[in-house]
Amino acid sequence: MQTTYIETQQISFQDFKNQILEDYKLGRISREMSYLGRREVLTGKAKFGIFGDGKELPQLAMAKVFRNGDFRSGYYRDQTFSLAINALTVESFFAQLYADTSVEREPASAGRQMNGHFATRSLNEDGSWKDLTAQKNISSDISPTAGQMPRLLGLAQASKIYKSVQFEGSEKFSKNGNEIAFGTIGDASTAEGHFWETLNAACALQVPMIVSIWDDGYGISVPTKNQRAKADISEMLSGFQRKEGENQGCEIIQVKAWDYPALLDAYAKAEHFARTESVPVVVHVIEVTQPQGHSTSGSHERYKNEERLAWETDFDGIVKFREWILNYSIEIEGKEEIIAATEELDAIDEEAKKMVKAGQKKAWESYQKTITDLIQSVLPLVENLKGQNAEIENYIAHFNKLVSKAKKDAFHLVRKALLATRGTNSAERNQLMQKYNEVFEIEKDNYSSHLYSQSQWKAENVQEIKPVYSDSSEDVDGRVVVRNNFDKIFEKYPQTLVFGEDAGNIGDVNQGLEGMQEKYGDIRVADTGIREATILGQGIGMAMRGLRPIAEIQYLDYILYCLQGMSDDLATVQYRTKGGQKAPVIIRTRGHRLEGVWHSGSPMAGILNLSKGILVLVPRNLTKAAGFYNTMLKSDDPAVIVECLNGYRLKEKQPDNLGEFTVPVGKIEVTKEGKDVTLVTYGSTWRIVMEAAEELAKLGINAEVIDVQSLIPFDLSHEIAESVKKTNRLVVIDEDVEGGTSAFILQQILEKQKAFRYLDSDPLTIAANDHRPAYASDGDYFSKPSADDMVEKIYALFNETNPQKYPAIF
Questions:
Q1: pLDDT attached to residue 215
Q2: Distance in angstroms (rounded) separating the CA atoms of residues 135 and 81
């Protein structure tokens, strides 16, 4: 087992002295970065600043117990910690402040995140995993308060899983599960539900996790007493304190932010508990100061009184650290030893200022050079067009008068010039057009790449393997197909695990996991508490550490509890790191037509709109669902797979090649050919559409039925447009509300696939009423599209064009 900080602190006085002075220097560098960063924003060179001044000492102490292989899921003020573990430099700090799009200069996000959002790169350029045990790891920060907490749970739980789960390549992710997940959060953010849900789950699961709470007494301007039931979060958490002999709860340590030796002791103890006993620990860091206030958006003088401001000046961590160093003395072999004199600390202060200024200057010059190079490449080409339109000279003059120029200004100039010379076919204009296309592709990559995987393992690259049937293939309940397929998955992929409410002992409420826990154990097939946000968080954290989690949300209606994490965290992981991190979670859920307001909803439009970055797969039966699981386990994209809740007891023929057959993403299936009208649908509604198509055939209407199967990505080959080209009519049928998924599908077909060119009638959408479905079968009939609704509305299309052949029904 890896030793802890407590066990390694047998050092000489000289080494001790050197460590102290290194910490002081790093603290001073971080403080100067905060000071200069604020000035850069207020002078207009950067857009916004949020800094970590006041938190330097606890972060230095935390960094001392942070080892290779460990992970942090944190708060956007941890710049000192990031410096201390070499995940941040002065130059990369300012590169992020300026939004430099270079991955080399700003490796955390390539300019996509505002400053203070840190990350290390878990992936090689080709999207393959680095050896995460050979580096200190920061999972990419997000701004939503407490949003980092659910992911923290999964990062910590992965260590516990790796104690018993190994697979080919697992040595890149863990050394026998000895890693700790460190979380950081502002004190006011502990009022968020995500904090409580995460800590509760961690205490139940007993995972190696250390949560640091930076307590400066305020949430922006609102004091702590207005945030929670108790001003003191340690007091509030006292019921979580573990009792001797019990395997539940956590350790709680409170320490002052300006007390350097006490901080070292606190984090040493925290590491020892977490690393050796796999116990979650809360380190409540109190009396934190915030010398420059919350951010560059305002001043803390507006809400802190003179007494508080004076206290913050006196108890500034850097000031108190300096006092402690100057007052420290010890007698060794009859000689008094000190750490440093005033002059030595003054010299360190001056050196820190120079280092920060030099780093800022280098970052600014590098950032400006990208803009200057862009301007120098396009401006002469625009000037060449001056003779072709008088307005261009005015555009150039306006551009040259700009005091500060950004990329957008150069692009605005080029586009105005191209607009002014439209219809002109000259060598000069063609040259500008060529350059515009070239630089636009570069910026498209800078700002819009990596929403989805761009690696060789992206889901679109997974080849279709069709299900194989034989004379001996049995007709079984749909749930048996998916259950037996999971059996093959767990056997084939030891890194795969599933967890959720009722997923383990009873094999999920619909028996799709029947017997799996008994066969594969409660680590790989696990029950969880009723806590959807952290079920998703478990999945995100585990996936970031090389496992292949299937996070089960019992019903689609309850995925709303996860939507914040799906939208703000999971969907943006690859994008916000520009391909530096990934989290290929599979979210398993079930829904659509069943019974009642809370078990038959269809929040698909919300998922589609808020979770771009996650594949949305909507199989019409359990065989298709099984194929999608097989596909996604070969991919490194995250996905949500919505099983049909009313399909578990319906008979399906079980394929012979379980665990092998795949369903391609972005591929539609024509389930009934026809020539008169194209009916597009998905999921549970497909069965009703097929029923309606049979009724329409009796009325002389030959409908083609298309199951889209995959909403994101959607019909990559534009096969639906080909169907519309044949039938000249389009109907989109969906059980989401009006303007929901049907609107998305319609936009994809009409706008992206240009199918409007082939229409002889208005496109039609048939959707649910704008309320949750009422209870029971009658509730479904009157709330969502029925076969009767479909037949009548589709028939009306034909009545409109040929009333003699298709007389009105009503």
A1: 94
A2: 15
666: three-class secondary structure by DSSP: coil
Clarify whether residues 315 and 359 are in a common domain. no
SS3 445: helix
Asked if residue 1 belongs to a domain, the reply is no
Angstrom CA distances, 558 to 190, 531, 602, stand at 23, 10, 11
My answer on whether 566 and 639 are in the same domain is: yes
Average pLDDT over residues 326-343: 92
Q: Which of these ranges, 117-131, 290-304, 338-352, 454-468, has the smallest mean pLDDT?
A: 290-304
pLDDT in tens, 143-194: 999 999 999 999 999 999 999 999 999 999 999 999 999 999 999 999 999 9
Residue 402 sits in which domain range?
354-448
What confidence tier does 752 reach under pLDDT thresholds 50, 70, 90?
very high
Residue 716 pLDDT exceeds 80: yes
Query: Are 620 and 758 members of one domain?
Result: no
Catalytic positions, written as ranges:
599
In whole angstroms, give the CA distance from residue 626 to residue 619: 9
Domain count, the chain: 4
Q: In terms of domains, do 551 and 521 share one?
A: yes
State whether 474 and 527 are in the same domain.
Answer: yes
Q: Give the tens place of pLDDT for each residue, 421-441.
A: 999 999 999 999 999 999 999
Ordered DSSP codes for 389-427: -HHHHHHHHHHHH-SS--HHHHHHHHHHHHHHTTT---H
**CATH number where 755 lies:** 3.40.50.920
How far apart CA 781 and CA 314 sit, in angstroms, is 70
Element (H, E) at 336: strand 335-338
Q: Of 652, 616, 668, which is closest to residue 637 (Cα–Cα)?
A: 616
DSSP state of 123: B
- Is 215:231 a contact under the CB 8 Å cutoff? no
Q: Name the pTM for this structure.
A: 0.96
CB 345 within 8 A of CB 353: no
